[in-house]
Amino acid sequence: MSSNLVKGTAILTIGLFLSKALGLLYVIPFYAIVGEENVGLYQYAYIPYNLALAVAISGAPLAISKFVSKYNAVGDYATGRKLMKSGMLVMIGTGILSFLVLFFMAEPIANFVIVDDDRQKFTLAEVTSVIRWVSFALLVVPLMSIVRGYLQGNQKFEPTSVSQLVEQIVRIVVVLLGAFIVVNVMDLSPRTAVKFAVFAAFIGALAGLVVLYRYWMKYKPEFNQLYASSPPASDITFLDMYKEVIGYTIPFVLVGVINPLYQFVDMLTFNNAMKSIGLSDVMDTYFTMLNFLTHKVVMIPVMVATGFSMALIPVITSYYTKKDQKGLTRSLDQTFQIMLFLTVPMVLGLIVLSNETYTFLYSKSTAGAGVLASYAPVAILFGLYSVTAAILQGIDRHKWIVFTSLTGLLFKMILNIPLIKIFEVNGAIAATAIGYAIAVGINIYVISRVLHYRSRMVSRRLILIGIFNVIMLIAVHFTLKGLLAISPVHGKMQALLYVMICAVVGVIVYGALSLKSGLAQKLFGDRLTRITKKFGFGG
Predict the structure, then answer these.
(1) Where is it located (predicted)?
(2) Side-chain half-sphere of 3: how many Cα atoms within 13 Å?
């Protein structure tokens, strides 16, 4: 069971990582095809879509898998199948409802975005249109979620990972190929290409559904055999069944939906606040930089850190159930240390190399690089929120997740407009940082009180990690200074070269310090210790 859990976590994490990495990389050619001026239209569609999607399905696969595995554990395979059959109808209904809501709410949402027709880049009709085009994907995606949940509940993790990856690949191919044909072959407007690109979410979802169907047919004989050997389904009513599933779902939904909610607050308030301080001419550009171009880059360190840390969460749940305080403290220590050990250097690297990173990914832009440098530190809070919320889930403190998430969001809503009026785009970043910091602070307080968690060792280790990061930062800073003294950045490939050289210097310095001190070995275990001893590093 333990090996299945580790294997399943690894498969899901790798699939998620590859999917998210592709989600960043495709932006580079898409940006080149439609241009900076039009790429923002794409984001105006995706923020409400991501929010609607998160409400429609976020948490459903995990909640359904938890329900199915619970009844499978006692040999009751019929109850899980009962949920699957009824859930298919429920998710089809959810998909149709969420599609209709987003489709018909497209114009009211667009009205929040278009606050100055004469000076904005996009019209009300254009923003309304892209939101409606992307809404079609909601007809398919909720159906996929219940199939993924049922398969995961039966310890089949590969279908979720592969279907997510195929869905992303097909979507990206359709986005890029469609945009290229529309702009360069059919000689139509890049904004027409953006409409086609957002519709690609529907085509990608269909591809993911086909993959899941093929896996379902593969596993069907096995499931039928288990179903045949199962006693009749328990007498749990459909009402009780869905009350149980919804009880599992709500905290998962909030964790999944919180980031799109913060972005949605920006979407509803950013342009009005910028208009009020006389910045109508640049508000679309800054909004695109904030919530699309730099956001995708900032999520990279979050993805890597939480991928490693989340693998430890089931262990924490196990120790909590057994009331093993030593094991619990050790697991929490390792979780926080690994998360910060991996995230902080990547964040510092993004700050120092913000200009070169932005130039390589998109185009040379002092404003864009400035937004990236300001936004990058928030990645640490994103990562800490994910990890602390997962720990609270592991110890069954679901109500606290609801409270802290909504409290942080409330502060974002209250502070966003006044801070934007004072600090422009950095005000929106500051409001996000404050909201997440409050949520993370309360989460950590609850964890420390409930689990009696205190660790001086972690404090000492974090100081050591901080010192190593300062040394690495100095090394990378002077390396970049030297490169720029030889030749300023003139193009994408030169920017990439400088990023790679500085990254290698940073990895060597940080890695050598971590290995020589024995910190890396303590964090990543015996296998790394055995390897490093062969190369003469301390254990």
Answers:
(1) Cell membrane
(2) 0
